Amino acid sequence: MEIEFRFLKVTNIPEMLPLIQDFTQHKFTDKVHEQRFIGMFQHEYDCVGFYSENTLIGFCGLWYQIRHYSGKSCELDHFYIIPEYQGKGLGTQFLDWIGDKLKTKGFEAVELNAYKENTASHRLYAREGFMHLGFHFVKRLRE
Questions:
Q1: pTM confidence score
Q2: Which helix (H) or strand (E) holds 103?
Q3: Signed CA dihedral, 41, 86, 138, 14: sign only
Q4: Residue 133 domain-assigned?
Q5: What pLDDT shows up at residue 113?
Q6: What is the mean pLDDT of the chain?
């Protein structure tokens, strides 16, 4: 399967909205997601789109930081591929692609959080050499 990875921009937000709605199970409005994406793009953030025949079928956000425990690192965020394309090796293909790009820019680590119920992703990340270091906690300050 031929997949093209492209760095997305704010102008891509309208085509990203249906996928982020699926990823978040429609918990927020398009307007909320749009505002959040705009804010994210103003910080140390990129987003890569996965295209099949010019159709966006997945994406992954990238947060850049330096951490005490991992050095210069990139945190993958909202790594999502639409269901009909899952299980076809695209996750591995992307992780290889982004890993190569990050290494050439001097990054020391790639990290991510995964939803606890998403066991298929846990298997992918373990196969790809990710170590399970801890838990991610969130405290909502307002709903």
A1: 0.93
A2: helix 90-104
A3: positive
A4: no
A5: 93
A6: 95
The one-letter amino acid code at 98 reads I
pLDDT at site 1: 76
Ramachandran area for residue 85 (φ above 0: left; ψ -120 to 50: alpha; else beta):
alpha
Q: What is the CATH number of the domain that holds 32?
A: 3.40.630.30
Q: What percent of the chain has pLDDT over 70?
A: 100
pLDDT per residue over 12-42, tens digit each? 999 999 999 999 999 999 999 999 999 999 9
Q: Above 90 in pLDDT, residue 142?
A: no
Torsion, CA 92, CA 126, CA 27, CA 33, rounded to 10: -50
| Helix, strand, or coil (residue 111) | strand
Count of structural domains, the chain: 1
Provide the token pair at 7. 């760095």
DSSP state of 112: E
Distance, in Å, from the CA atom of 85 to the CA atom of 119, rounded to the nearest integer, reads: 17
CA separation for the pair 136, 128 (Å, rounded) = 20
Q: Which domain holds residue 56?
A: 4-113
Helix and strand element counts for the chain (H, E): 4, 5
